[in-house]
From TrEMBL:
The keyword Ligase does not apply. Pfam families: FMO-like (PF00743). Keywords: FAD, Flavoprotein, Membrane, NADP, Oxidoreductase, Transmembrane, Transmembrane helix. The keyword Heme does not apply. SUPFAM superfamilies: FAD/NAD(P)-binding domain (SSF51905). The chain crosses the membrane at residues 559-583. This is Monooxygenase. The lineage of its organism: Eukaryota, Fungi, Dikarya, Ascomycota, Pezizomycotina. InterPro entries: FAD/NAD-bd_sf (IPR036188), Flavin_mOase (IPR000960), Flavin_mOase-like (IPR020946), FMO-like (IPR050346).
Length: 594
């Protein structure tokens, strides 16, 4: 089978890798893959549309070096992707500096890809049996229309930002947006020779720490945080047992889990930091109705500067004084500097003065009456991906009905990486998407059960119709669903036997007999957990889980890491699922009688 992949970002490269390994792993005929990339190098947006200080993660079977931190910088990640290509022999299947002009159907069985190489005026065609689209090809900065913004002397999109020098000297900088990119830019601006920084938002945000917070108990006694302690990343902190694994379908499909975590997150944030809105966040909270549609903001370096004008006043209350004397996550010092949070602009007048929407929030009343004339405006408002190279009879990401990957009427066309997790990174989910699509494409008999549409709603975020992004998913639920679909979700008895076998092969002092089951139960849905069995079973999975990811679980530490994030949810939801399993036969009988 001939398969074309469009785009050499992480999603495209990992899809190509699984196409090449399908013959050995799935027992199918060899695949003839080819990858088209318009740029002259691999890496996609991380190589060509990024900025300093980004942080990223890796795939299941090609792990970071021992010297690497938990999150790789963008430069290191692009280096990682290049080595990934070498390790898995991808280079000879890449056509770099080659732009796809169009994709059209050739009858009902194949696709014709028309492409042009960068230095050649002539187009050429490639016929294939399936296509994996891993890029919009035309990624356009999303720039909302704001009247009069052209009156500002310097306006650009965050995609054009590369370093601090672009802020200028002694300037007033207005950042439009409140996502991770906006937060990163705000922090960089605060460490640049600027005059003032403002950040505009539409309906708030939830600032979450990149790592599990390490609160100080009884700071009133002079207790201090351990400066050498490096807590585990938040997106690998949750326990999967009874949260995604072994969850009764009735519990999974109800809102109880969401209600619990909404209360749990807000209560924990208030307990350790004094504000339910977010970590060290005293302003800019999301509206209550959006708790099921949150994209957590893990870039929290700018948050102390945003909160500074509001935090001091609220910390003077008796309740906050008592709370902070008993428990408190250390707060970063701002040196008297701050970032002004602002509502979304309505327009810029003839003098270039910005006017903000009246949202009746504290930030509006604080800025009301001030004449603010920005020198620099940066749109940190994301991107719009267009698929002008697809003919009209092809699906688009919005029309997909099977795991947000393909349309059931045309499974030969896949869209890999077109989801956005509420928490966690896209590349690991792209890897799972690629695994499922390749299995369904080449060996559908290995998919253990039909991919039911009834399994879709539980992992999708409930976005309102006004939201620009309509493809949000819960990372953990979505990852586990894809693993179930492939038959790659290991059961309790299976992981016990694998742990014992690993212990026997590695020696009794290794501890594999308990480490492997505990990583399976207490760890987040690391992709490597789903390489123990199933069509993409990998012999190195046990080593990664026992030696590398065990350390991640172990690092949680303490009451907040092991009790609140693991023990309490497992106890609550485990009991509920157990009761539902016991009562289900009775409920089924009653349903038949009614």
């Amino acid at each position: 089978m001939r398969v074309a992949v469009i785009g050499a970002g992480p999603s495209g490269l990992v899809t190509l890798k699984y196409l090449l390994s399908a013959c050995d792993s799935l027992g199918c005929d060899p695949v003839e893959p080819i990858l088209f990339e318009s740029e002259s190098s691999v890496g996609g947006t991380f190589a060509h549309r990024t900025y300093e200080d980004g942080e990223l993660t890796t795939f299941s079977d090609f792990r970071p070096q021992d010297s690497d931190p938990d999150f790789l910088s963008t430069d290191r990640y692009v280096e990682y992707l290049n080595v990934y290509c070498t390790h898995f022999g991808l280079w000879e299947h890449l056509k770099l500096s080659t732009t796809v002009v169009s994709i059209r159907k050739n009858g009902n069985r194949s696709h014709i890809i028309t492409y042009r190489q960068q230095d050649g005026p002539q187009t050429a065609e490639h016929e294939c049996d399936a296509v994996a689209i891993c890029t919009g090809l035309h990624v356009t900065p999303n720039i909302p229309n704001i009247n009069g913004v052209d009156r500002v002397s310097k306006v650009f999109h965050s995609s054009e930002f590369k370093n601090r020098s672009q802020f200028g000297l002694g300037k007033t900088v207005l950042i439009l947006g409140s996502g991770e990119t906006a937060m990163d830019l705000g922090y960089l601006a605060m460490h640049s020779p600027i005059k003032r920084v403002l950040m505009s938002h539409r309906d708030g945000f939830l600032c979450a720490p990149k790592r599990i917070p390490d609160p100080v108990i009884l700071p009133i006694l002079g207790n201090k945080p351990d400066p050498n302690r490096l807590n585990v990343p938040v997106d690998s902190s949750s326990a999967s047992l009874f949260d995604t694994a072994y969850v009764h379908r009735r519990l999974r499909d109800q809102m109880l889990l969401w209600h619990y975590y909404d209360i749990f997150i807000k209560s924990t944030l208030w307990l350790v930091g004094g504000s339910k809105y977010g970590m060290a966040q005293w302003i800019g909270g999301i509206s209550d109705e959006r708790y099921h549609a949150i994209f957590f903001n893990k870039s929290n370096k700018a948050m102390p500067y945003l909160s500074a004008p509001y935090r001091q006043e609220r910390e003077l209350s008796i309740v906050q004084r008592i709370r902070s004397s008993l428990i408190q996550v250390p707060l970063a010092e701002t040196g008297g500097r701050h970032i002004d949070l602002a509502p979304w602009p309505t327009h810029f007048d003839e003098q270039g003065i910005v006017h903000f929407r009246s949202n009746n929030r504290p930030e509006f009343h604080r800025l009301k009456g001030q004449r603010i004339k920005p020198d620099v405006v940066i749109f940190a408002t994301g991107y719009t991906q267009t698929f002008s190279f697809l003919s009209d009879d092809y699906p688009t990401p919005e029309s997909l009905d099977t795991r947000s990957i393909w349309k059931s009427t045309n499974p030969s066309v896949a869209f890999i990486g077109f989801i956005r997790p509420s928490f966690g990174a896209i590349p690991p989910l792209s890897e799972l998407q690629a695994q499922l699509w390749v299995v369904n494409l080449l060996r559908p008999a290995l998919v253990p059960r039909p991919l039911s549409i009834t399994d879709e709603p539980h992992y999708k975020l409930k976005m309102n119709n006004r939201s620009r992004i309509q493809y949000g998913v819960d990372h953990e639920s979505y990852a586990y669903q894809l693993a179930l679909d492939m038959g790659a979700a290991t059961g309790f008895s299976q992981v016990l036997s694998r742990g014992w076998a690993y212990q026997t092969s590695k020696g009794r002092r290794n501890g594999g007999w308990y480490k492997l089951p505990l990583v399976w139960a207490l760890g987040a849905n690391f992709n490597t957990k789903f390489r123990l069995r199933g069509p993409w079973k990998w012999k190195g999975a046990e080593d990664v889980l026992v030696e590398e990811l065990w350390a991640t679980v172990e690092r949680r530490g303490g009451f907040f890491g092991h009790v609140t994030l693991s023990g309490l949810p497992m106890a609550v939801f485990g009991c509920i699922s157990l009761v539902l399993w016991v009562l289900e036969p009775v409920m089924n009988i009653l349903g038949m009688l009614m």
